[in-house]
Write a structure and sequence with these properties.
With 365 residues, the protein is α/β, with parallel strands linked by helices. It is built from 12 helices and 12 strands.
């Protein structure tokens, strides 16, 4: 935790595609907090992803990893793009992101899916199904198929054969379940654990551990759901859920599905935390190379990442609330980027939408 009088050390990793554009707007919000005397920080920028590959030949360098370890929090834009798709899997930009998550111990990924009232009609679902939706997906981030060994592609008699390993230790499962139960206890006290226990042994262990940890949180109602049914229920009746917890690959898929229920994946932030509540914060929208450099990307997810950062890394609920309120107020006054604009709206540029949030924030600080 960094108190109001302490200078926070923040590392900014803009990355690739629209990452630099949206991170620039988040940096403007940090500067507004500093100018208002609300939050002092030293902001350092470094390379990650494809930008790092171009500069030093690897998706994240040891030096940048050391900077991340020394920082109080990290804000990442996005990594990846077609420019680097030809590279071997081990050398692609996404490997830099996975290395950061693994070596920083960022095992808990928190992905809220909140639908602002003014954007209800932007959702792909009927308004009565999604109005006032506020759910949280807790995704285990450093295990499962993305990190499991053995893995690879090999030549066999019948041809090339690709394989990955999905594996979790009991300790890894317990750690993420305990995090999810703690979060659920502070919300509406309902936790749904997502697995595939009917066919996967690792999921059977997951469910067993969930039941055991759940006995330590009697105030939280625990339920279980198979991942395929969870996907169906998210598009059928998403408001039945409060907090969902699941393993890495399931969480990757379900959180993007939930994000689209809000009208645009460009609206949602995420936090990746370790056991010490050190966090790396990143929008869930990815690098969107098709619109990079056009000044039309939605910066709200990056700005909302700062709200999560203030809440989880710095325990500044006041600043988290102010940022959230500023975004909400800008939307209520009709500020829209192209991805959330409807017929008759005038889409704002990335910079203009940032201006709209800053104008609202100024009256709240």
């Amino acid at each position: 935790m960094t108190n109001q009088a302490t200078v926070a050390s923040l590392l900014l990793l803009p990355g690739d595609g629209i990452g630099p554009e949206v991170c620039a707007e988040a940096a403007r919000v940090l500067e507004a907090l500093r100018e208002a005397g609300k939050f002092e920080c030293a902001l350092e920028t470094a390379l990650a992803g494809g930008a790092s590959i171009d500069a030093c030949g690897e998706p994240v360098s040891d030096a940048v990893l050391a900077k991340a370890r020394a920082a109080d929090a990290v804000l990442l834009g996005a990594v990846g793009g077609p420019k680097w798709d030809h590279l071997p899997s081990a050398q692609r930009p996404e490997k830099g992101l996975l290395r950061l998550r693994s070596e920083l111990g960022l095992y808990a990924n928190l992905r809220p899916a909140i639908l602002y009232a003014t954007l209800t009609n932007s959702s792909s679902l009927k308004s009565e199904l999604v109005a006032d939706m506020d759910l949280l997906i807790v995704r285990e981030l450093t295990g499962g198929a993305y990190f499991g060994e053995p893995r690879g592609v090999e030549n066999r008699r019948e041809g090339r054969y690709g394989f990955n390993t999905i594996g979790y230790s009991e300790d890894e499962i317990e750690r993420i379940l305990r995090t999810a139960f703690t979060l659920a206890a502070k919300r509406h006290k309902r936790l749904c654990s997502v697995d595939k226990a009917n066919v996967l042994e690792v999921s059977a262990l997951w469910r067993e551990v969930a039941e055991r940890v759940g006995r330590e949180f009697p105030e939280v109602e625990l339920s279980h759901i198979y991942v395929d049914n969870a996907a169906m229920q998210l598009v059928r009746a998403p408001k039945q859920f409060d907090v969902l917890v699941t393993e890495n690959m399931f969480g990757d898929i379900l959180s993007d599905l939930a994000a689209m229920l809000t009208g645009s994946i460009g609206m949602l932030p995420s936090a990746s935390l370790n056991a010490d509540n050190f966090g790396m914060y990143e929008p869930v929208h990815g690098s969107a190379p098709d619109i990079a450099g056009k000044n039309i990307a939605n910066p709200l997810a990056a700005i909302l990442c700062l709200a999560m950062m203030m809440h989880y890394s710095f325990e500044r609920a006041d600043l988290a609330s102010a940022i959230n309120q500023a975004v909400r107020a800008a939307l209520e006054k009709g500020a829209r980027s192209a991805d959330i604009a409807r017929q008759g709206d005038t889409p704002l540029s990335t910079n203009q939408l940032g201006d709209a949030v800053l104008n609202e924030l100024a009256s709240l600080l």
